[in-house]
Amino acid sequence: MRFDNPASVAVTPARQLSYNYLVSVNLWLLLFPCDLCCDWTMGTVPLVETFTDPRNLTTLGAYSMIAVLVWVAFIENHRQKSAVVVMILCIPLAYHKSVDIR
């Protein structure tokens, strides 16, 4: 299993940091699919092992972007509110295919 998915057998902080980093990687690939790969095994995406790793900033940015979209969709009163809500509801459908859900 380490060969196919190194994050699944990593120690606890590295596993959570790596899985959260994969959220930002998959969102990036969803928006810009030019870097798609047919095989993501064997450590294609290196593990995030420490809290000081700069890739944690991309994770923070991805979750911040999601939070802003949810805020705009459900809290703010905009004319295009329904379009943003539909967009947010469609994201999990496209994102589901790129995530390792078991």
Question: In summary, what is this structure?
Answer:
By secondary structure, the protein is mostly helical. The chain contains three helices and no strands.
Descriptive overview:
The structure is a single chain. With 102 residues, the protein is an all-alpha fold. Helix content is 55%, strand content 0%. The chain is built from 3 helices and no strands. It has helices at residues 12-31, 55-74, 81-96. α1 (12-31) packs across α2 and α2 packs across α3. The longest helix has 20 residues, at 12-31. It is elongated and about 50 Å long. The model has no long low-confidence stretch (mean pLDDT 80).
Strand composition percent? under 5%
Give the overall shape, derived from the CA principal axes: elongated
Which regions have little confidence, pLDDT < 50, spanning 5+ residues? none
Helix count equals: 3
Q: What order do the helices and strands follow? A: HHH
Rg for CA atoms: 16 Å
In whole angstroms, the N-to-C terminal distance is 14 Å
Structural class computed from helices and strand pairing: mainly alpha
Structural domain tally? 1
Percent in helix: 40-55%
Average of the residue pLDDT scores: 80
- Profile the largest sheet: none
Number of distinct beta strands: 0
Strands, helices and their partners?
Layout: H1 12-31, H2 55-74, H3 81-96
Helix pairs in contact: 1-2, 2-3
Task: Supply database-style keywords.
single chain; 102 residues; mainly alpha; elongated; transmembrane helix
